[in-house]
Design brief:
Oligomer: single chain
Number of helices: 3
Largest sheet: 10 strands, antiparallel, barrel
Shape: globular
Helix content: 10-25%
Structural class: alpha+beta
Length: 212
């Protein structure tokens, strides 16, 4: 589960813009050396987009098996860090998650508090789909997120709209969650724009056991 962070993307978007304008330069204005640099850059970008071959089904035999209805139920707490594209931590956060299910549809109310005092809220709705996973929606998610699960793992892919200057920008988010015990889940996220990585989020979600 992701959240907005303008600082996360500003530098990376400048780099993407420079790349975009560089490839628009007519080739007749490029020297042989610069043409080679352009080719290498384009090939690197293509490989970056194509190299993610890990599927959630690769974890089918991993234990403990995750059931979202069981794990995302009740009070949970998340603690994590936001990293820029250079893997440097730029923010930390904690979040309280109130999760519940009704008629097979899940609701996750996430309330974030960042180290600089900023507060954010996101409410996910998880609806079962025909593929055996879930469709995830939220106010700042564009279209539907796709949640797939296998073994101890849950992958969630979606497009998040974040503030950027006086406007907004859409980023693709790849969430990968791994249940390591019945009460603890590890989440690693990658945010991309035009296939280029602009930041990461690492967090742990702890499920509070029911009180007696």
């Amino acid at each position: 589960m992701e959240f907005r962070s303008l600082q996360l993307v500003e530098f990376s978007l400048r780099a993407i813009n420079l790349f975009w304008w560089s490839v628009r330069i007519p080739t007749k204005h490029l020297s042989g050396h610069n043409m080679l640099k352009r080719i290498i850059t384009v090939l690197a970008l293509y490989l970056l987009c194509a190299c993610s071959s890990v599927q959630v089904t690769d974890y089918a035999k991993f234990q403990p098996i995750i059931d979202p209805v069981i794990f995302f139920n009740g009070e949970l707490w998340a603690h994590g860090v936001i990293k820029n594209r250079g893997n440097r931590v730029i923010r930390t956060f904690s979040a309280k998650i109130n999760a519940y299910w009704k008629d097979g549809i899940g609701t996750l109310e996430e309330d974030f508090v960042f180290n600089d005092g900023e507060e954010q809220r996101r409410v996910w709705t998880l609806t079962p789909n025909k593929s055996g996973g879930y469709t995830g929606t939220a106010d700042d998610v564009i279209g539907d997120g796709l949640l797939t699960l296998s073994g101890n793992s849950v992958f969630l892919d979606y497009v998040l709209r974040v503030p950027y200057g006086d406007s907004t920008i859409d980023l693709r988010v790849d969430d990968r969650m791994y249940l390591v015990s019945p009460e603890v889940l590890i989440n690693e996220s990658r945010m991309t724009k035009f296939g280029v990585t602009v930041g990461f989020i690492d967090l742990v979600i702890i499920r509070q056991p029911p009180s007696n």
